[in-house]
Write a structure and sequence with these properties.
homodimer, Dna Topoisomerase Vi A Subunit, Chain: A, domain 2, four-stranded parallel beta sheet, alpha/beta, globular, 7 helices, Helicase, Ruva Protein, domain 3, 2 domains, 12% strand, two-stranded antiparallel ribbon
Chain lengths: 202, 202
Amino acid sequence: MKLARPLQHVIDSFQRLPGIGPKSAQRLAFYLLHVPQEELDSFASSLTNLRKNTVECSTCFNVSETDPCVVCSDPKRDKTIVCVVEQPIDILALEKMGSFHVVYHVLHGRIDPLNNVRPDDLRIGQLAKRITNSEYPIEEIVLALNPDMEGEATCMYIVKKLRAAGSPVRITRLAYGLPTGASIEFADEITLGRAMEGRREY
Amino acid sequence: MKLARPLQHVIDSFQRLPGIGPKSAQRLAFYLLHVPQEELDSFASSLTNLRKNTVECSTCFNVSETDPCVVCSDPKRDKTIVCVVEQPIDILALEKMGSFHVVYHVLHGRIDPLNNVRPDDLRIGQLAKRITNSEYPIEEIVLALNPDMEGEATCMYIVKKLRAAGSPVRITRLAYGLPTGASIEFADEITLGRAMEGRREY
């Protein structure tokens, strides 16, 4: 039996999304059959408008409705500290801390030669320029990239690049160690090694 | 920090779907920022057209592009056996067997007083009528409802209803027992009880 084509189209659309397999896509599509037409229309228009009604902030390259974005135009932010992240979604997680009112710089990826992402594909050059041309003196760059191979290679590259340009800015990275709630019994050896290396005195 | 509204709309739309929590909705919305506009438009139109371009088959009440649906109009189907299911998605699972070429009847739910679903909300009356008025004599009704409280109460109701109408049709249900790959060690007592009750001789 072949499924009705309109149903199959919805299944196909969902299946293209990351983390949604054939079974979930089917379940979602059949669920939507019971949803009022207005809700389907509103879902549809949210999708068509997603890219049309957003821009990249020309300062921090975060996704935004306005340029500069709400963060860059917020007078209460400490603009001397720039936190560098891989993706806009990382900013969401950092903002949840609630206590760290700095500005951001979105690289839109990390150096990943296996997937053909080179330094020039990222907003690294723009970061260097931003440091030089900023109206506020930028004192610290906090590298908040994912603690994996590609993330660390990207950090190394940024540090080298900024130092080569003679920038005197302080460059830091997030601490590595045990996450809250972890148990030493189940921690992997790399995490434990880093936690030991970064141990602090009472 | 507030998210850009177009992004928040997409997150809200995804979050309304079953099984998609706030984190997954965020991940999907941020993913879609990187997708070409044509793909967003095609996703959007698949949603608006889902209900507009589908109908319920007037014979079996399955979702379909045409009335009668592809199953009901298929001359190779054994129309003397009608398999009754709760939802259109159940037909997908049954069709995967590949060896059971019968026709279906979709109830669109099951009797569930706690959620205010009464027998009249389902296509039970239409099933009785279908048996009486069918051009092919219907010989067997296979009740393929979910093996839980509501599913079984609905089966009981259908059996009573058809018998009260004096229908001589054979009414069966799917077998209950151990699913393939299950281990007796971890099977629950109800499943084991049913497997024992339905034991078969070699």
